[in-house]
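User: Fold this; tokens only.

Assistant: Input:
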Amino acid sequence: MGMTTPPRTLAEALRARDDESLAGLLRARPDLLSPVPNDITQLATRAGTRASVVRALEHLDRFALQTAEALAVAPDPAPYETLLALLTGDGQDDGTARDDAGTAIRSAAPGALATLREQALVWGEDDRLRLVRTARELLAPSPQHPSPTGLGPTVAEATAGMSPGRLQEILTAAGLPATHDPVSAVASLSALFTDRTRMGELLDTAPVEALSVLDRLVWGPPYGEVTPNPTPPVKWLRDRGLLLPVSTRTVVLPREAALHLRAGRAHRVPEPLPPAVVAAATRDPQAVDSAAAGQAFLAVSTVEELLTSWNGGGPPILRAGGLSVRELKRTAAALDVSEPIATFWLELAYAAGLLASDGEADERYAPTPAYDDWTELPVQDRWVHLATTWLAATRTAGLVGGQDAKGRALSALGPDLDRSAAPEVRHRVLALLASLDPGTAPDPETLLARLRWERPLRGASTSAGNTTDLRSRIALWTLNESELLGITGRGALSSQSRALLDAGPAKAAALLAPLIPEPLDHVLLQADLTAVAPGPLERPLADTLSVLADIESKGGATVYRFTPGSVRRALDAGQSAADLHAFLAAHSRTPVPQPLSYLIDDVARRHGHLRIGAASAYVRCDDEAVLNEILADRRSATLRLRRLAPTALAAQIDPASLLEGLREMGYAPAAESAEGDVLITRAGTRRTPLRTPPAPVPEGPPVPDGTLLGAAVRAIRAGDTAATVVHRETDGTAAATAGSLPRTTSAETLATVQAAAMTGSAVWIGYVNADGAASQRVIAPVRVEGGFVTAYDHTADEVRTYPLHRITGVAELADDATP
């Protein structure tokens, strides 16, 4: 679909593209596909809307953006040579560094221009480059929105509305011939500012203080305030048009003069090449893999420990959603980590679907049924699940503790934590790590510099009135979180993580598996009522031991401590003293210490001596002396007890509170059922209903696949054919104007489509669907019967049936316009 004449509009430029180029545009700007445009004209219109152009500009790298900014201050249209001069300068400033930069710019400029063309931000041939109008409005200078280049308006724009007399005064002061034509006066002044020789001679006569004023304005902002009686240097500049008035108190340095002072450059520091990511340290790749594997195992263990502690029901949910600060502190203390790290594990478990609300009236967090399935997987598969969830999640744990746009605190597991840029930043950070040699840890500052070069307009997020670089913050959080999760080891990307990015989860799990330590089936019991696990334990052993003892410290070896409370917890779970003795003897590589045996027997002897039931609640005991002792204890006053019988007391509080209160007083009561049996408390029975993990919040429309792109391009081409096809006039009816629907009577419509079905020719129709949306189509009728026409629709590239009463009109195609 090549064109022999230069395009006059963006629509014509897009129409001249081949299908692959159009597909590239839709791939780079997927928002243009929502919904699929009817034709090329509608595609061009949508590509020029403000929202779409802003989104496209945000995805440009720094040099492509600088190229667009240079075009915004260039004449419209501008030849490629003018654009290149704005990027490289006019060569009047000396220096080898400037020459090297110019070489790099000349090498990178064609690629940047190709990117702008592909995204339909620039169109036209190289001798007439045009930046789309919306992008020019966004990037061109104005008093309200200064140009990113720091350049001000042109002489023509700054002098618009200036009196002819004032223009004559400026020409005279600048040594230019007088003219009564304002257009000629503006042209003469512009020519002076763009002539290096004459401009140099003018500035040679300027006072030194005037040159200092220009130095402050030359790289922007170009606006300055003046008093009603300006100083002599400012008056000298204003008289000669080097400072032009914007208002009674504001002047501006015109663009042409600024470009002379800049040696023709639109930017002070053009950046044609991305900054390199510098290595901060180089480590042994095997040591990196081992460190990452150890951290991956710790990550899985930490998530498991967190959710195990919430097996019986986690903390309550705030009315506004999320976890309270007090509960977050309590969780962090239980995990022996800082609050930000605890927040990360909570958010990761929530995003992975392992943690959710139980949905009860008194909402609390609890593990989900998916958690049970997750715990049955091998360690490496559990880690892969966490890692892939983290890569795709938009929930951003680093925001917790900050404030939202309304000044409200952001809480862990609460709303408003989704940031759609997070997955892209995480993947890009890891891709940059993967580009380094194995074992290389990057310097974070150079990594951030690279990310800022790749997306200079992205990541600015306003929160509580403050503007911050959100992408940089997410990048720093990514480095920390990847180390916590075992994606990296000692700052460098591990081999298993490289496999996760390149080959997929199965390969990553296969590489991680040999690095995970084998679980042990034994512990070492100590005489100080502790047990040492010299490595990870098998699941049945770990589950039972976590009930029987409390974790005292973690690390390469885990230390468990036996206490009266932990032993009572095991007895409450249905274990007997004999069961506990047998369990410890079977799983200890050292003899069971006598103090531990005494502890178990002592707690078991007193366990269940008191019975708690519902009266609201009651206490039953065969030993009257024990009940007398409880009643005499001042601490029992809050339990509101009274004697019902020599061996029974009644309470005005619920059984659970009574049970807890007596245990705090040092007793070991057991809960009792309505039948008088001891209630057994099973660990790990509290689960939420089935829950799906929170879906990541996408950033705009998803990138379409090749099939969808091909179908969209065909539909746009077909619609364009229908919109621009040449058709004949029908008898008695004027031909429809371009882009409008044809109009014919019902009889004429029926006769025309019947004739087209008999001859096998194509016709142009207007059609209104059931929703009232009008469109125009090119069809080849096959059959007309029962008030319907069956035809091959060239617009949709398929056979369709249309009710005749919904066809607004029909026109025959010109002989040279048949599809």
